[in-house]
Amino acid sequence: MLRFLNAGESHGPALTAIVEGYPSNVKIKTDRINKELARRQKGYGRGGRMKIEKDVVEILSGVRFGITLGSPITLMVRNKDWENWTDIMAIEGDPMNKKQILEPRPGHADLTGGIKYGFYDLRNVLERASARETTTRVAVGALCKILLEDIGIKIGSYVLSIGEKKIDKSEIESISYEDRFNNAENSELRLPILGKDEEFKEYIDKAKEDGESLGGIFEVYALNVPVGLGSYSQWDTRLDGKIAQAIMSIQAIKGVEIGEGFNLAYLPGSQAHDEIFYSKERGFYRKTNRVGGLEGGMTNGEPIIARAAMKPIPTLMRHKSLQSVNVITKEPFDAAKERSDITAVPAAAVVAESMLAFVLAREILEKFGSDNWIQIKERIEKYRQEVLNY
Ligand SMILES: Cc1cc2nc3c(=O)[nH]c(=O)nc-3n(C[C@H](O)[C@H](O)[C@H](O)COP(=O)(O)O)c2cc1C
């Protein structure tokens, strides 16, 4: 089974991931992984950290002469900022000599993590709970995208809203997913239509002036996915559940919908389902895709569509107030800080692409076998023909 573990603190020496179950004979270029890492770092409204760090992957195992070996792949991304943190993040020494973080920030893991793991210095919590961790998720996602692209599966994302500023569904209905993606790649906010950036940037600038932060909604999709990934047979084999879990696991994501999601609840049955059609060229198909490509916990061959809601960044500017309590003195304090990101919705969308890529790559390998990618690809090709002839 394809799986990965990642490790590393936000200001530690490096972030790492070990990927196991990735097949042999896949051509890997570090440039492709670095391209994805750069996409995660973009987006209007990000803070200073993104300017310090230009993430670059180093592959430490599992690849030789540009070809995967079928053995575990170790990925490492160094934290460039580490040189300024060797003291505070030292492996050995006395923590009492260092400035501790005793003030838990609302909206973060700080307080509960401190209580749970038994620390008063909340840096021990926030270093790992930070979304910096998603860097290696994106590196692993890039490996998965390489597999998926080789069998024609395309994954992408775009942003639909930042705070109350929205792109209306009717504005993108007639635009293909590829075009929405291409537009998003040329937008500082990953917007699926061109010419809207300035409006959104002004809105974000206003939030910054007010000392506010903003959340938003993005959509992530996968095209050309074979029919029948996932299964209805058990609760934990249903692919819609796996996709929702993977996206929900991203920091600050508070809601995930598949297809029309919550809106389906408002429709009568005759308008909520996707009717089935057949043609010799296409085989079975639907003209609508309200269920986002998943029925009975399985892919039905239509695009997979998931939408996610991100809460506003919890760190606010100094002149806005969020009340909290010091863990030692029990005195109240104002948790607002000098600065962090104002919004990170475009970056979260890129992380969600990576999680979707990982879940789909794992399902592909589960259905078509592991070990040697050349053989796996042949099986996928044969299966696709069988689906057409069904
Ligand atoms: C890409 C990305 C960047 C983020 N940047 C920040 C940030 O700069 N400052 C901050 O306070 N929270 C930031 N967050 C949000 C926190 O990581 C998140 O709110 C926190 O982990 C608690 O959310 P949870 O309860 O959903 O885990 C970011 C999240 C993501 C996905």
UniProtKB/TrEMBL annotation:
FMN binds at residues 128-130, 251-252, 296, 311-315, 339. The keyword Transferase does not apply. It catalyses: 5-O-(1-carboxyvinyl)-3-phosphoshikimate = chorismate + phosphate. PROSITE patterns: CHORISMATE_SYNTHASE_1, CHORISMATE_SYNTHASE_2. Gene3D superfamilies: Chorismate synthase AroC (3.60.150.10). Its cofactor is FMNH2. Reduced FMN (FMNH(2)). Keywords: Amino-acid biosynthesis, Aromatic amino acid biosynthesis, FAD, Flavoprotein, FMN, Lyase, NADP. One of its GO terms (biological process) is amino acid biosynthetic process. Pathway: Metabolic intermediate biosynthesis; chorismate biosynthesis; chorismate from D-erythrose 4-phosphate and phosphoenolpyruvate: step 7/7. GO terms for cellular component: cytosol. One of its GO terms (molecular function) is chorismate synthase activity. SUPFAM superfamilies: Chorismate synthase, AroC. Its EC number is 4.2.3.5. It is an enzyme of class 4 (lyase). The keyword Flavoprotein applies. NADP(+) binds at residues 40, 46. This reaction introduces a second double bond into the aromatic ring system. Belongs to the chorismate synthase family. Homotetramer. This is Chorismate synthase. It comes from Sulfurihydrogenibium yellowstonense SS-5. The lineage of its organism: Bacteria, Pseudomonadati, Aquificota, Aquificia, Aquificales.
